[in-house]
Amino acid sequence: MTPLLLRDPPVQPSPDEARSWLRRELLHPEYHQQNVLQQVLTWLQQQVRGGLNAAQDAPPLSTFAAMVVLVLLVLGLGWLLSRARWSARARDEQRVVLTDEVVTSAELRRRAETALAEGRHEDALVDGFRALAVRQVERGRLDDAPGATAHEVATSLAGTYPHQRPRVAGSAVLFEAVLYGDHSATRDQAVSVLDLDNELAGLR
Q: Structure pTM?
């Protein structure tokens, strides 16, 4: 009599376990290489193929459970990728100095001075540097290029005011560090940016 061969029971992780597996998989170094999306899709395809092969010999209830887990994996992957794209887009939008906002240098300057008086040094520094940039656009010393970063603004202004290159570059570094580097700003730093705006405005 041929002995019965007992198959290992199919793995049926809970939704939380499935999401945890996905997160651990995405932490592997190979997913941080250049073509991340292709790496993830390849891995997902392998998992689907393996699941379909296993489902052929599994009872209907186990097959259904595997399909539910697969759907959760796909949804989790889509959520992770959408969050990554949103975060990257938000960081890019925050980094720019010249935005699509229709505002004059005078208005930005007033906002910076109000923030300074209220002790909001980070806001004072950021609006102060933007006031500086917009003022130079208004004077024709800087191209009106929405989306320009602090580095690009500093590079352009350093060519126009070479003797102010260190201060312009330093103000751009402060702007970037405060706005998207989560660094705090001191009153002296904010005042230095506003003083630079005054000095550049007085130069012909």
A: 0.55
